[in-house]
Records
---
Amino acid sequence: MSEPLFRRLCLIGAGLIGSSIARLARERDDIAETIVAHTRKPETLERIRELGFADVVEADAARAVEGADCVILCVPVGAYAGVMAQIAPHLAPGCILTDVGSTKGSVIRDLAPLLPPGIHLVPAHPMAGTEHSGPDAGFAALFEGRYTILTPLPDGDRAATETVAELWRRAGSTVESMDAATHDKVVAIVSHLPHLIAFTICGTADDLAEETREAVLKFAASGFRDFTRIAASDIDMWRDIFLNNRDALLEMLARFTEDSHALARAVRWGEADFIEDRIRRGRRIRRGLIERKQA
Ligand code: NAP
């Protein structure tokens, strides 16, 4: 077994993602000697104590990061600027500051200006999750077989980036690097737009007349059910993602709207070839995912 990567690992936020990292670090000997967890609500702090996945549970963010050689932000991306203002003066010299946020341009925008000299920022995004949230929802195997994307800053510390990459490899992830703008476009199409569509379709169904809505719920297994699973996601997290990946999301939505109009036109004019072609493309993409073991 290798040496632990960190002496003192501090998780700011210990919901689905933060508590999964903590559970993983608990399970393995090669990640951290001491695990510190901070969240804001007293009831969440109490629950973390009960669950026992952290060695230190700290109500004060500034005190939580003191002496940590790695701090991972695991809060909704809209909370980053406020959290950073609290912790920045207390980060230990040489500390690695990383995160798990679903948007990366906004994270760099909010963290970089407050970064003290000698602190190494390595933005990261594990592409793993479920529709559940909170400290009870996490599990150590969450990141296994999934991708983690790093978006290192051009002048970022290479050794720190490599340490964060190694953390995610030990979590079972495949690590890839790209710039933040590319990341934000990719996640806009693979994750943010599908969520926007799921929230919208559930709203449309909910607006239907009473008796139709009842029938929708009764026969939901025909496809609607899969949208409801995605639409059951955390409110704070998804509000923040939409507001912090606005440009990329709106660009993908505009393209999607054009494409859906093209399909609607084919339906109106009975253009069977066009319709078949779209279905064939969908099937091909699904096969590709299965072959890459991402289904
Ligand atoms: P979550 O289960 O809702 O947990 C969020 C945690 O952050 C909770 O411990 C919450 O504690 C704490 N928190 C919220 N606002 C805070 C604040 N202002 N100060 C301190 N703590 C605060 O969310 P999650 O799914 O773990 O998501 C965390 C991050 O991971 C987000 O940035 C998200 O974009 C990213 N992410 C999520 C997924 C996914 O599928 N869920 C996948 C990849 C990345 P309290 O109860 O005390 O508020």
---
Amino acid sequence: MNDISFDPRRIALEPDELAGRVIAITGPTSGIGRALALECARRGAEVLLLGRNVKKLEAVYDEIVALRRSDGSAVAEPLIAPLDLEKAVAGDYDAIATAIEKRWGRLDGLVHNAGLLGILSPIEHFDVPTWVKVMHVNVTAMFALTQVLLPALRASSDASVICTSSGVGRRGRAYWGAYSVSKFALEGFVQVLADELEKTSVRVNSVDPGRCRTPMRRQAYPSENPDTLPAPETIVDPFVALLGPRSRGVSGRAFSAQ
Ligand code: NAP
């Protein structure tokens, strides 16, 4: 049932909220994605780390295997899969679907978190190649990854797809150009896919993380004091709530993490 009163910020998470779930996260090497990958593992999920930089992926892998659950037990070992969303071709996406199929036979969560800011510039002067790159990474690659993983998501009895949005994807703002437009497209993607999957066990929602202390935020606001911003670790619980069993049936919605 699509409970319209559901708010992922109000869910008190259990230590084992994600026990037994298999969750893939793009962009787990930095900022929000890294914090979320660690939190998912801590709460019992097996995490698939999808990123473009193997060294950075291995560093997050090491952080995850060093974690302990709240009862002191070890967390599940994550899996690393290299994926550059700018350069990936069909075979790269297929390889990820095959790896998931082989290891788990299903996927319970998919978090589209990786994103590209590009440049801030008036539309009149916006660099066309940068526009194409941002739209490709933030929209087309997200679509392609979802498409190839839909059979694995459908194989789960309770699957959740989260697309990471932004305030400028819900209300346009001058100079945010391709980034803003790509997040509007992401919101549209969520609505279309949620409608198509209405009678299935796969839910699809967007989350605006809100302002957060990450490299992308620093790129957008170079003169801002980062100490005034919340750390990524403090804003990921609503993502976890949307990946866990309590959000079952909630789909096609646009949530905010703060
Ligand atoms: P971040 O720290 O800069 O992390 C961005 C992530 O995306 C990194 O893991 C990066 O990989 C990955 N990525 C970029 N291009 C990629 C590509 N071509 N292929 C694969 N991965 C790629 O940014 P963040 O702030 O955590 O952003 C996470 C999400 O939150 C984004 O979707 C962003 O739009 C959204 N968001 C953030 C804020 C905020 O205030 N921070 C506010 C609203 C929305 P590398 O580590 O290899 O570079």
